[in-house]
Write a structure and sequence with these properties.
536 residues; alpha/beta; Urease, subunit C, domain 1; Diaminopimelate Epimerase, Chain A, domain 1; 32% helix; 22% strand; globular
């Protein structure tokens, strides 16, 4: 071998996830790619002829393929780091106290925004605008729920949006109203747009700066790549960072269905870009969520907090319109990624993708359903048969376990978050976080997939038959995510020719107690053979 070696990694406990050579002790890297993996003596012999420029002693750390999150809203997450953080707060009064504190230091008339509140932590009832009016009467307030499918606003926000009792309903959404027909301050699904349109948008420069500040936090958790669902401003910000050489996280961008006519006009296709930033699938939002009781279900939710007994959730898109737009995307050279939470939404997503694969020869494209939280037994088997990717977020299972039993009942909850069943069926499975809905940290996702418990939780696993092995969980965050982006020939394994995207952990999580997984330190994160995080 005459190729100059840039980096030798040694003194490592390497899990390659490559069937030809599952374990190794050392690696040789050149031009951002792995050129050899093997024993220390193998790599030393190779190095003797090629004189590596640098070496990295991992001091016995465990090295795995670079972790990859298949479902993020990265720009949004970056921006909300500067907003009110309401996730995990289990008392309504505490949320209101934080809003009041923010109002005291914010100029009168400026918007107060926050994200992460979860009514299921307080009880079943929805909050209302009057609660916010009491603590922030001179500021418009807009607080996004944890699942990002509910917006809680105050009266001033409604006034600025021109939203009154006479405002008609929005297709695929709901303006909740009291007994007198007045808006309560809770907007569901597409109805959130009535307020969002009057909130000043951040500039490209602001988004760019926020992403740049967030990148080190992502690398600290071991991430080398993400799939990110972005709007036009977010995509532009990523492009600016790439052009400046500041984008250190490989990013597959999923644009929403709003982008289809623009992509058609430009003649762009999936995969356009380079190894750091490229276009992936087109994202569709088909239904709502479990926590908001807006997921499209075949049977009504149990214990609905609005005291309805016929609430089967809602579709955010007309099914015929969804099929029409899906066909447009696929004819333009893009696979589709479809948000489905409820079993009815999953059925529709599978139906449309399978129809497109028959009629538009889209089998060449990677199509995926996002979340896949509950499906009927017959529909679960369709993922493998049609090679439709199940893009799932393991922490949703542990966060939602109580809510699933409350609103779906035991029998339906037993067929929710079926990661083991999907893998056994032969379905392609990719794992992610859905940040900022959940933590971006993939160690937490691996733990959730393996244990089916929350951190520190002292109770049995949530339907333990669905627990995965550590290797299966890691594969979902490595090869599975790479496959979902059509990138499995470059990433997801440690083998010659693959990109040198690597994550090193202080402990061997294959053998340590599972409760230690989420707190296992990341000691090195490498992208293209270059350290983007180092803590040895």
């Amino acid at each position: 071998m005459s190729q100059k070696i840039d980096l030798i990694i040694h003194n490592a406990n390497i899990y390659t996830f490559d069937s030809g050579q599952p374990r190794a002790e050392a690696l040789a890297i050149a031009d951002g790619r792995i050129i050899a993996a093997g024993s220390v003596s193998d790599i030393r012999d190779l190095d003797g002829a090629n004189a590596a420029r640098d070496t990295l002693d991992l001091k016995g750390a465990t090295l795995i393929p670079g972790l990859n999150d298949s479902h993020t809203h990265f720009a949004w997450w970056s921006l909300i780091m500067q907003e009110l953080k309401l996730a995990g707060i289990n008392k309504l009064n505490k949320v209101l106290d934080l809003v009041a504190e923010s109002a005291e230091v914010t100029p009168v008339g400026a918007w107060l925004q926050g994200q992460g509140w979860d009514k299921n932590l307080w009880g079943d009832e929805f909050p209302n605008r009057m609660m916010l009016d009491r603590v922030a009467p001179r500021h418009p307030v807009a607080l996004m729920s944890k699942d990002a499918h509910l917006l809680w606003v105050n009266s001033l926000a409604l006034q600025l949006a021109g939203l009154t009792r006479d405002t008609p309903e929005v297709e695929g959404g709901e303006i909740t109203r009291d007994a007198q027909g007045e808006p309560t301050g809770i907007l569901k699904e597409n109805a959130m747009s009535l307020v969002h349109r009057v909130i000043p948008e951040p500039t490209i420069e602001q988004v760019e700066a926020a992403i740049e500040m967030a990148l080190p936090e992502a690398h600290r958790t071991g991430l080398t790549a993400v799939h990110s669902i972005e709007d036009a401003i977010g995509f532009a910000a990523f492009q600016n960072l790439r052009a400046q050489g500041k984008l250190s996280l490989r990013t597959a961008v999923l644009l929403g269905n709003w982008a289809i006519p623009h992509l058609q006009a430009l003649g762009l296709r999936q995969g356009f870009g380079d190894e750091m930033l490229w276009l992936a699938q087109i994202k569709f939002f088909l239904d709502g969520t479990l926590g908001s009781q807006t997921a499209a279900m075949f049977e009504p939710f149990d214990n609905s907090p609005d005291h309805r007994h016929d609430n089967c959730g809602m579709f955010r898109m007309d099914p015929e319109d969804f099929e029409r737009q899906a066909r447009q995307a696929i004819r333009s050279g893009f696979g589709i990624a479809v948000h489905v939470i409820g079993d009815h939404a999953a059925r529709l997503g599978l139906d449309v993708i399978e129809k497109m694969q028959r009629e538009e020869d889209s089998g060449r494209l990677r199509n995926r359903l996002e979340h896949v939280q509950i499906v009927t037994p017959q529909d679960l088997l369709r993922f493998a048969a049609s090679r439709i990717i199940a893009s799932c977020q393991p922490t949703h299972a542990t966060t939602d376990r109580d809510v699933a039993e409350r609103y779906w009942g035991y029998e339906r909850a037993a067929r929710s978050y079926q990661y083991r069943a999907l893998l056994y069926s032969g379905a392609p499975v990719a794992f992610g976080s859905d940040v900022p809905v959940e933590s971006i940290d993939p160690r937490k996702g691996i733990f959730a997939a393996v244990s089916r418990r929350r951190e520190g939780e002292n109770r049995p696993a949530f339907f333990a038959q669905e627990c995965l092995t550590v290797g299966e969980a890691i594969r979902g965050f490595t090869y599975g995510a790479a496959y979902a982006a059509g990138d499995e020939r470059r990433r997801g394994r440690i083998a010659p020719g693959m990109l040198a995207d690597l994550t090193a952990l202080a402990q061997d999580i294959f053998v340590t107690p599972e409760d230690e997984i989420p707190q296992t330190p990341v000691v090195v994160t490498l992208v293209g053979g270059s350290p983007v995080y180092l803590s040895l």
